[in-house]
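Usage

Read records sequentially. Each one opens with the input sequence:
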Amino acid sequence: MFDNLSNRLEAIYKKLKGRGKLKEVDVDEALREIRVALIEADVSLPVIKDFLAGVREKSIGQEVLKSLTPGHQMVKIVNDELESLLGGEVSGIQFSDSPPTIILMVGLQGSGKTTTVGKLAKKFKKEGKNCLLVPADVYRPAAIEQLNVLGRDLEIDVYPTGEGKDPVSICAKAVKQARAEMRGVVILDTAGRQHIDDAMMDEIKAIKREIEPHEVLFVAECMMRQEAVNVSKAFHDAVGIDGVVLTKMDGDARGGAALSIKSVTGRPIKFIGTGEKLEALEPFHPDRIVSRILGMGDVMTLVDKAQDTFEQEQQETLERKLKKNAFDLDDFRDQLRQMRKMGSIQDLLSMVPGAGKLMKGVKVDDGAFTRIEAIINSMTPHERMRHNVINGSRKKRIANGSGTTVNEINKLLKQFSQMKKMMKKMSSSNFRGLNLGSMLGGRGGSPF
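and closes with the structure output:
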């Protein structure tokens, strides 16, 4: 996400280093290059024009602070303008004081609308809210079945549409049932089309009039880039939306849709989808996104991911083991599993300040973690508890069982021994939080 834009901006800032003042000619030259970078990122041209005007106004004649270079000063100015462009503040769901909170999901077919309903439902359930999911896309039986499957997997009720063919009636009856059952949230999954048409808009408007939702969320696939911006504006003009959910952010290296939608629609981005799993939904934090764009990492999102993944009870159990120097390969495997729940290692590293530059061009093999787990699973319980007993013949058996090599097993055992020594040494003075999760900012230990 934003890789291309980040690289271009970094090159621009380097040119400004060593100058004592941002002169008008320096600013104009930098703005021309920033303009090209934003065009390459597929940002809307009117948005680019307004953005550059704001940066130029703040940059001309700015004295560089004693501790800053001109490059840093420009970063600060661009940072502030980008945050403003993205909305400035986090905008979440506005829950009703009189439940249920009714959320109407709209968007084109294939945008990830139904999957997003499941992601939101999982998030709300974790927050203790009793949800009802409503499949109102009567034109695609597959969409109804998909939502029913998600409901079963999440153990969340799905409204039975039966033989109903009228989306307005289905939604009205579902909301009435939700009120009677004292539900906390109702999420309605409406029909989409391959493209915008009057029939779709009229249907959504009729549903909105009938149920009076508290939130209308437009779901857009950011891989559509500029078209996602145009479609979001069309939906807002026709129906009126309250916020946007951008899906497939992990697959878009440009990020132009994210940088344009707020300005074009006047409505905030509320969530971003960062993967196919139901956990891969993040609140949209403008300041954190800008930090990523400017290559400064995103420690706070990393901390949030770790806190959501590593349970306090597991932390305390591990701390007791560290105290007794009883950390074994079973514990190591459990920690790896917890880390993998946080997302790909490549994505996690992108949130570490400075790691982006160090890892530029380097691809982290997430498959290595699968091989490590296979190796540990091929060991006996005694071997996992006492790794020092693993001799040559045992290594051959483990290699055959895991589909790996003796060399890979030797490498794993060496790394585990080194890590265990380090943790033992550190635990003697401060054992709290010394696990793989807290090294990435989890509970109980400061990040990095």
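Summary fields computed downstream for this record:
- The chain has three domains: 3-85, 101-296, 302-440.
- The longest helix spans residues 406-430.
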